[in-house]
Amino acid sequence: MSKPGISGAELVCATLTRAGIDCVFGLPGTQTTGLYEALRRAPLRSVVATHELSAAMMANGYYRASGRLAALLTIPGPGFTWALTGLAEATLDSAALLHLTMQPARSPGRQFQLQALDQAAIAGPLSKGQYHVDHAAGIAPALLAAHALAGAGEPGPVLVQFARDALRESAPLADIAPPSPPPLDEAALDAVLATLQRAGRGMLLLGQGCNAAAGLATQLAETLSAAVVTTTSGRGVVAEDHPLSLGFAFAGNECGTLNALVEASDVVLAIGCKFSHNGSRGFELRIPPEKLIHVDASAAVLGANYPARHAVCADATIFLAALLQRLETRPGHAGFSHDEIAGWRRRADDERDRRRVEPRIHGVDDGQPQAFFAALRQALPRHGCLLTDSGQHQGLARRHFPVLCPRGLIVPTNLQSMGFGIGAAIGACLADPARPVVALIGDGGLAMSGLELLTAVRERLRLTVIVFVDGAYGLIRMQQLAGSGHAYGTEFDGVDVAALADAVGATHVRLQGDAQAILAAAIDAPGVTLVEVRVGDSVPMHWLRAKSRLRSSRLRAWWRRRRR
Prior knowledge:
Layout: E1 6-7, H1 8-19, E2 23-26, H2 33-41, E3 45-48, H3 52-66, E4 71-73, H4 78-82, H5 84-92, E5 97-102, H6 119-123, E6 129-133, H7 139-151, E7 157-162, H8 164-168, E8 170-171, H9 186-198, E9 202-206, H10 214-224, E10 227-230, H11 256-264, E11 267-271, E12 292-296, E13 310-313, H12 316-327, H13 338-353, E14 360-361, H14 369-379, E15 385-388, H15 392-400, E16 409-410, H16 420-431, E17 437-442, H17 443-449, H18 453-458, E18 463-469, H19 474-483, H20 497-504, E19 507-510, H21 515-524, E20 528-536, H22 539-563
Parallel strand pairs: 2-3, 2-4, 4-5, 5-7, 6-7, 9-10, 9-11, 11-12, 12-13, 15-16, 15-17, 17-18, 18-20, 19-20
Antiparallel strand pairs: 1-8, 14-20
Helix pairs in contact: 1-2, 1-7, 3-5, 3-16, 10-12, 11-13, 14-15, 14-21, 19-22
């Protein structure tokens, strides 16, 4: 006896639920009214954003904070195109999501149809794969295949386009088994084990792909007495107050001391990192191929930028579990002592602090950024999550905020989109409502995405948003001051943060007095709280401007003399 059929729209919701997805971000529109009617009756949580770009950032933050997929639902045409930067962010930062949309209009014999774009071609470079569903019977197989593809290998966004008739037709909900993970290459594991056993001092380089294997990664570091370094997206995989961790010390962009550590190590085991531009310090990181063991779930990543002695295509959790099981039967390693790691940490700190020019943070001791982030670290529980936007504040957070848990710091790494912070923080809140979440943004980013706070308030989230207010696009302004001594196009009248908070139904506080107590109260408070932090020019910034202007004037005088 055949199973009774349900509508295609209901089939979409049922299949998403079966795949383990419980949250859908997006905006309803004419072409998706049927889907939203099905969502109304489904066990899925539907979050309506102010626009599709923020919805895409929410899905990104949801995955980055939890390792679980969410769905992004847009109309074709303008809804689809507004989400594109969010897709690009997800692609470059290896964040899995499902982008569900409708196929563009395609009535036979008609040109110039409403909202008709070649969406498949546009999304091609921005998605890991695409599925096109013309009939209801194809909905479940396409969605389950897209879900598997999005999370397999290097995670990324997958586009699924539905024909209008597919959502109106009926079809049964078929039983489809989820795919099994590929088996581990035992010969490759034996080769890695032999190399590690012969090595004395080892270094672990851990990336975002290790976030789900934090306990195993820490156990391996302790077993090998290995120095631990991470990419930005992998920070906290081994807590940065662990005596073997150098993640916080190497939180800047400098590479000299890190390259020296590689030279002092017999082997470098890189797990779950793809050696992108930012993940390799602008490709300044030097690792001799004979020292490198590279493990990643994506075969395309292996050898792409850094050739390795051993290249193993494997999930980090599966690989680490198998490796540790074999290492447990072997004698211990000499490795690095805690005192040696402390020495490397001091050396890296000295390099990181050299020639540092930072703004003044009002409301903390001596206006020092490290004092602000020390207060924030004390106020935010170990398991809390800090998300940033793109800008000067992100660099300060990466430099001064120690990360004590996996997925404890989430930033837009390889695309660096402004407008990421608030949307991604909303996604992180929904991924784990019990986890404290703090978003750190600038007032430029607030002007770009501040109305998304309406969504956070409407969804009754507990979210703290810290706004650095300097009336400027601070990072670009700093670059201008360093280059010419003049700022142009980067200074503006700032947003009235208190008025915005009142308008959207959030609480507003200023950082005045005991910074740690104020931040802790904001993090513990129910609802959405905006913390306004005033930021100004420091003495080193004034010197930077003066020296740049002097240099520019001398160059102009020299050029005038040359032309006479």
